[in-house]
């Protein structure tokens, strides 16, 4: 673009979004298309691209103790347009299956996401209304920007549906809320008013150049149906309290208005959004920078990297106690989990150029070690953590080495090495839940009755669905990788590795998993093999210190392709197994029973891609990612779902999952770099020195 002006220098063109996706009228009306906005404190604003609440988690959620103790305060705006004596409600509230209050869906002309900032457009009686939504960082606020284009004067009436509850539950009766009128600012407090000290809602209206009429709140009950909760067998109706709050009179030609809905907590109380449009511009610029930094860091300058880099930002949040960066494992219901955080770290931070956050994230979990174990999860009520994981601490060792390899941060390596060695000491001599190195072979034993320790960790009351006690295969790969990480970090620091003997002994023993021409998924304490066909062997073989042969890798690739591979991930159990469950749906007990018994998971697909690349199968690796690449725009927009049903491949679980999103980014970068290398002419001589950091130690 050029300027024809000769009176002065051309004005710079504002940079546009790096990632963009648009939906036509029919697609935009699908309530299953969900969008996520986050504030970096664990709070979020969740809804469909059309604005329909679909879960008890929809609306505005704020954290009282970042990133946990989260409460839902606001479900949806109420939006009514008046033009030439006619009226249309622009919102859409599902009040029963397929029955909507408001004309929001039928008036939609399309929607878009610009660097994952959602925008919808509606048309009524010749008036166009564009609505954009965003969350300013650390604000606890959802901001709704309205741009109206009209040839005649119009009135826009704005209000909202309010609640005040724990985010996991619903109001079955009319909530006791107190509205405090205040002109352009209205407060909505829960039972007990300001005495309870809990979070409350502050709604503020901005409309420069328009006439604003502040209405006296007249709260009325409004029943809302949550379709996604119904599908999960959860309570699916809620009674909210709604009220119109303002009327904005706009002149011919149109104008603009902004509704700021803020959850006020001790952390966010001092935050204000004085100029919503300037705040939007700042947030859009921040997202553009995230996308471009990831493209530069990863060496892959395409739109998928840009999209996933912006998505990655949603999961990186501040933790108050213990202080530091952490990772929300999935939205809308997970808190921060150790295993998920360490698996996701590479994609969320190292490939996106967010090295300071990576260091801080590692520090959070290194400081939280207990008897050599990292927290499996921090409790959502803010009351501590659970340590029932055998692999979380081992993934921490892998993530630490990847961070140091990519950044060259030997100072952090030196300060972290004592904690890594203590972690390994605990595993060698024995720690909680029967986790210890077996004196007979040096492999890692784990498990006790009633405890689930691997990533296949479902427990239904007293039933551990996939116990895998003994020696799970991927745990051995991680054990070797953790021992190897200590050796390589020690070498880099000029220190003597302390576990060379333990590493050598465990490597010598690993071939015991190869029996009858295939790898076992686990060995019992007495050596009895579990021959279940699961993706865990691929996870083990993709790690750097696991001994194998090309023929064995080829055998694993064939087995995964024949029994586990789908377009969106890998089955957790072969469909040929009698225990296979192909339906992931219904009540929680039904979902949990299928969770790791055939349900498809996206994140382990990256390990399979790594095996393909190790055998030079670049095209097959790209083909394996095709389905997930398309899925990015069909459920949790810009993200990857937690799981898919084994038979129908319908997305389930959290629509926004950290390790799913991060591992797709890592796999896409690995394949893209392999494609680029394959397209270049082979050099006459092989250059000396290490591989580029973009490919080294990211696998």
TrEMBL record:
Gene3D superfamilies: 1.50.10.10. Residues 311-666 form the Glycogen debranching enzyme C-terminal domain. It holds the Pfam family GDE_N. InterPro entries: 6-hairpin_glycosidase_sf, 6hp_glycosidase-like_sf, AGL/Gdb1, GDE_C, Glycogen_debranch_N. Residues 34-253 form the Glycogen debranching enzyme bacterial and archaeal type N-terminal domain. This is Glycogen debranching enzyme N-terminal domain-containing protein. It comes from Deinococcus aquaticus.
């Amino acid at each position: 673009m050029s300027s024809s002006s000769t009176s002065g220098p051309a004005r710079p063109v504002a940079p546009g979004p790096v990632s963009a996706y648009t939906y036509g009228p029919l697609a935009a009306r699908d309530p299953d298309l969900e969008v996520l906005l986050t504030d970096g404190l664990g709070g979020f604003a969740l809804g469909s691209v059309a604005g329909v609440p679909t879960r008890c988690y929809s609306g505005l959620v704020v954290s009282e103790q970042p990133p946990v103790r989260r409460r839902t305060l606001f479900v949806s705006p109420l939006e009514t347009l008046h033009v030439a004596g006619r009226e249309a409600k622009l919102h859409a509230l599902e009040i029963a299956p397929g029955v909507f209050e408001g004309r929001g869906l039928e008036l939609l002309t399309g929607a878009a996401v610009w660097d994952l900032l959602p925008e919808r457009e509606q048309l009524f009686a010749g008036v166009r209304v564009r609505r954009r939504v965003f969350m300013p960082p650390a604000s606890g606020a959802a901001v709704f920007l309205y741009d109206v284009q009209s040839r005649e004067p119009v009135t826009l009436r704005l209000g909202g549906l309010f609640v005040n509850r724990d985010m996991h539950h619903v109001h079955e009766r009319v909530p006791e809320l107190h509205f405090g009128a205040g002109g352009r600012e209205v407060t909505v407090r829960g039972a007990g008013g300001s005495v309870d000290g809990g979070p409350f809602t502050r709604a503020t209206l901005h409309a420069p150049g328009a006439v604003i009429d502040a209405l006296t709140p007249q709260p009325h009950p409004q029943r809302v149906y949550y379709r996604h909760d119904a599908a999960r067998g959860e309570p699916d109706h809620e009674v909210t309290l709604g009220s119109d709050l303002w009327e904005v009179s706009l002149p011919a030609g149109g104008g603009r208005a902004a509704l700021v809905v803020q959850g006020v907590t001790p952390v966010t109380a001092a935050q204000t959004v004085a100029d919503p449009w300037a705040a939007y511009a700042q947030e859009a610029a921040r997202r553009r920078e995230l996308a471009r930094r990831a493209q530069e860091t990863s060496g892959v300058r395409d739109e998928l990297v840009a999209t996933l880099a912006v998505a990655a930002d949603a999961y990186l949040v501040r933790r108050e106690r213990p202080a530091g960066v952490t990772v929300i494992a999935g939205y809308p219901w997970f808190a921060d989990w150790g295993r998920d955080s360490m698996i996701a770290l590479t994609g969320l931070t190292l490939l996106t150029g967010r090295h300071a956050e990576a260091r801080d994230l590692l520090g959070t979990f290194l400081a939280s070690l207990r008897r050599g174990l990292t927290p499996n999860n921090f409790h959502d009520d803010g009351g501590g953590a659970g340590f029932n994981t055998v692999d979380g601490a081992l993934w921490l060792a892998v993530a630490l080495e990847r961070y140091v390899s990519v950044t060259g941060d030997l100072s952090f390596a030196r300060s972290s090495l004592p904690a890594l060695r203590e972690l390994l000491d605990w595993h060698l001599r024995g720690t909680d839940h029967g986790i210890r190195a077996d004196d007979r072979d040096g492999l890692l034993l784990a498990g006790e009755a009633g405890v689930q320790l691997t990533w296949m960790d479902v427990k239904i009351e007293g039933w551990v669905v996939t116990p895998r006690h003994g020696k799970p295969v991927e745990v051995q790969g991680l054990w070797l990788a953790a021992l190897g990480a200590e050796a390589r970090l020690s070498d880099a620091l000029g220190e003597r590795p302390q576990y060379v003997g333990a590493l050598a002994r465990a490597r010598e023993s690993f071939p015991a998993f190869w029996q009858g021409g295939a790898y076992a998924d686990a060995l019992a304490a007495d050596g009895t093999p579990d021959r279940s066909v699961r993706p865990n062997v691929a996870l083990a073989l993709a790690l750097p210190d696991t001994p194998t042969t090309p023929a064995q890798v080829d055998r694993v690739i064939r087995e995964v392709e024949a029994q586990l591979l789908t377009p969106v991930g890998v089955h957790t159990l072969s469909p040929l197994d009698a225990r296979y469950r192909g339906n992931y749906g219904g009540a929680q007990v039904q979902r949990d029973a299928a969770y790791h018994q055939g349900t498809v998971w996206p994140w382990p697909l990256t390990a399979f891609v790594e095996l393909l690349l190790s055998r030079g199968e670049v095209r097959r690796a790209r083909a394996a990612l095709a389905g997930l690449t398309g899925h990015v725009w069909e459920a949790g927009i810009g993200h990857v779902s937690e799981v898919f049903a084994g038979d129908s491949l319908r997305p389930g679980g959290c629509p926004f999952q950290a390790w799913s999103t991060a591992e797709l980014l890592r796999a896409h970068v690995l394949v893209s770099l392999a494609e680029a290398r394959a397209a270049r002419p082979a050099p006459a001589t092989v250059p000396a020195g290490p591989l580029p950091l973009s490919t080294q130690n990211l696998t």
